[in-house]
Design brief:
This protein is α+β, with helices and mostly antiparallel strands. The protein has 2 helices and 18 strands. Strand 11 and strand 12 form a beta hairpin. It is elongated and about 125 Å long.
Amino acid sequence: MVPNHSDFCTSGLFNSCTFHPDDPHRPTLTPPTLKVKEGTSVSLKCSAPATCLFLPPNLTWTPGLGEAEETLQENQDKTKFKISVLNFTASHLHDGQEISCTAVYSKQNGSTESSVNTSLTAEITFAPQILSSSDCTRTVNQVKCSCEAIGNPAPSLQWTLDGFPVNHSDKFATSHDHRNGTNMTFITMSRTQCKDQFTLFCHSSNSLGSASQQILFLSLVAKTSAGSQGRVTLTVFIATIVPLLVLVCALLVLICALLYVIRAQKLHHTLPQNSDNTNSVATNQLLPSGEGNEIFYLGVRQFSILGTHQNK
């Protein structure tokens, strides 16, 4: 029978097995701080004393950013530690997150547990990103646009109209704000001061890079062009369908003509046969035995001329 872990620890079989106190030592994080650029491979090490080899602490990471590898390590002074190494790739999503390592110890009787943790706040530097929430709203009199961007270091924001920078003035009202790690800028324009066609861009930059996004393209000319394009499309449609209709009608006329010719040929072959039969009957009736009868045929019609005998 194999004794349980607490039996080993209480029996004194291992002189090096000492019990942890009710308030155990907190785990140690290496490195104690984390500041890296986005895309960097990161390895965080969490170590906690293993006062009893058969009851080592259970180490867990929060949040679970990647795979963790665990080992038991003995130092030169014979002290033993449970080691957990967390490996992950730094992302802008990790910026500002609290990463924590928790050590859970089981007491000698196995009935209760004690847990302690150590944490750090990740600082991930990354180039600006303009968020999809950037948009514009238009009313009869005004155009209001907002641009939101994230980045570390905090990025600067700039509006450009048709390639030219736009600042606060009588024609344009601009403002800036910062909320929950997001930089924002706003611009308000009067519709009466807008040209028939213009393009509004938002630009964001910091020491690691820059980003630009078209926020608005307004064109009154485009609406007129859209109507003209509709008329052009209709004209092209009519110009295409009319020749097709003419071709179909021509084919129908040709088919009717062919049918008429075929029928006429059939009648032409049938009528002479009927005429011969009629002629034979008529001849037998007209000249049963007489002499001097002369018969002329013209087409399907028959003429009989009876001669008169004169005595000489």
